[in-house]
Amino acid sequence: MAQARIGVIGLGEFGIQHLRCFRQMGYWGEAQLVAACDNNEELLEERMAEFDFNGYTDYEEMLDNEDLDGITVVTPDYLHKMFVVAAAERGIHVLSEKPLDVSMEGCREMIEAAESNNVLLQVDFHKRFDEYHIAMRQKIEAGDLGEIEYGYAHMEDRIEVPRDWWPEAAEKSSPGWFLGIHFYDLARFLMGGANGTRVWATGVKKKLTSLGVDAWDSISAKVEFDNGATIMFDSSWILPDTFEAIVNQGIRMVGTDGLLECDSQDRGTITCNYDEGMATHNKSFLRERYDKQGRQIFEGYGMDSIADFARNVNVLLDGGTVDDLGEYPDGYDGLEATRIGVGVHQSVETGDLVDLTEL
Ligand SMILES: NC(=O)c1ccc[n+]([C@@H]2O[C@H](COP(=O)([O-])OP(=O)(O)OC[C@H]3O[C@@H](n4cnc5c(N)ncnc54)[C@H](O)[C@@H]3O)[C@@H](O)[C@H]2O)c1
Fold it and tell me: What is the pLDDT of residues 48-71, one digit of tens each?
């Protein structure tokens, strides 16, 4: 079996998860972490001290010098396109972090670049890999809910994310782009690929502006889908530092014959200590263990979603086609989630109901 030769671009807060994923795939002979790039030299050196790869500050140099089969893009939300297109043009498969892009034109450009160069374009929508969500979808597909009429989803970060991690980037992003997008996609996944048709959304700027960060605190959106369902999506990143976890998240759906509810954060483990107080843990997303050789291993849907990309690349390297890959979040899923995101932000800015089919 092929072992995809992988490069990673963007080695910040989440880029480290990509490095962990491909390092351990190397232990198992599934993929090779060959190279990685970050234009922050200090951070690059820090990562190179922990992981074994050829380091670059210039992504084009990395793409041109290394014989890569695939790259993953883990730069800020609004900065995915140039890396995706540059890789596609060189015949290199790509996994982009979510959202694929913050504009419809950007997504379309990436899809076009991937299709015309015959490369895989995948999006890291990891909520699709959460076993609880997969079980929800199986119930929905089995007809347990009948026809879905309405639903509700929320994803909320503690305030440290926009306030401490990256305030400048937060001003260029929003809770809708950073968090809401996960659940715009998850709703589509659960409803068998239903697409958004109309949206009305509101946003509030209060808490973060009072702290000197000019970013939306929260965005609430009501989205109508082409299967007749309407889903409410709340996203925010102003939960108090004392909240029980870094993220709060969940989804419920109600149909003609039943309902489903999922707490996507609290999976039943509660801890309490003097530093953190009470805490709940989503160990489905990420959990750490050491294998028999004493090597650090990370597991959970956060890893599965990234690993799925390398496994897909392996299938293609072994002579398979895109049809052999089964279901995976592709460029069109990225586009449809972005369509909702664009509509949400347009509605927040204008106060109007937005027709998503016209975007
Ligand atoms: N799937 C998830 O659960 C999840 C979680 C967090 C973030 N994300 C996504 O991951 C992406 C990155 O988020 P983050 O929190 O890691 O941000 P971050 O700011 O911590 O990291 C981004 C990195 O990209 C680097 N970068 C920027 N421009 C570059 C360039 N031209 N060349 C090379 N490197 C460059 C920066 O130096 C930085 O180290 C975002 O799209 C975000 O939405 C996904």
Answer: 999 999 999 999 999 999 999 999
181 CA: nearest ligand 1 atom: 43
Spacing, Cα 49 to ligand 1 middle (Å): 19
User: Quick one: pLDDT band at residue 169, thresholds 50, 70, 90?
Assistant: confident
Give, in order, the Cα–Cα distances in Å from 331 to each of 8, 19, 127, 128, 240: 19, 23, 16, 15, 35
Q: Which residue has the tokens 């937005």?
A: 354
Q: CB of 78 closer than 6 A to ligand 1?
A: no
Average pLDDT over residues 181-196: 98
For the stretch 264-285, pLDDT in tens is 999 999 999 998 899 999 999 9
Q: pLDDT over 70 for what percent of the chain? A: 100
Please state which of the four CATH numbers 3.40.800.20, 3.30.559.10, 3.30.360.10, 3.30.565.10 is assigned to the domain occupying 127-285+338-358.
3.30.360.10
SS3 280: strand
Q: So what's the pLDDT on residue 302?
A: 98
- In this prediction, residues 309-313 reach a mean pLDDT of 98
The span from the CA of 49 to the CA of 143, in Å, is: 51
- Which residue has a Cα nearest atom 5 of ligand 1? 14
Q: What backbone torsions phi and psi does residue 35 show, to the nearest 5 degrees?
A: -150, 160
Q: What is the pTM of this model?
A: 0.97
Pick the CATH number of 4-126+288-328 from 3.40.50.2300, 3.40.50.720, 1.10.760.10, 3.40.190.290: 3.40.50.720
Residue nearest ligand 1's atom 31 by CA:
39
Question: Using CA atoms, how far apart are residues 35 and 344, in angstroms rounded to an integer?
Answer: 37
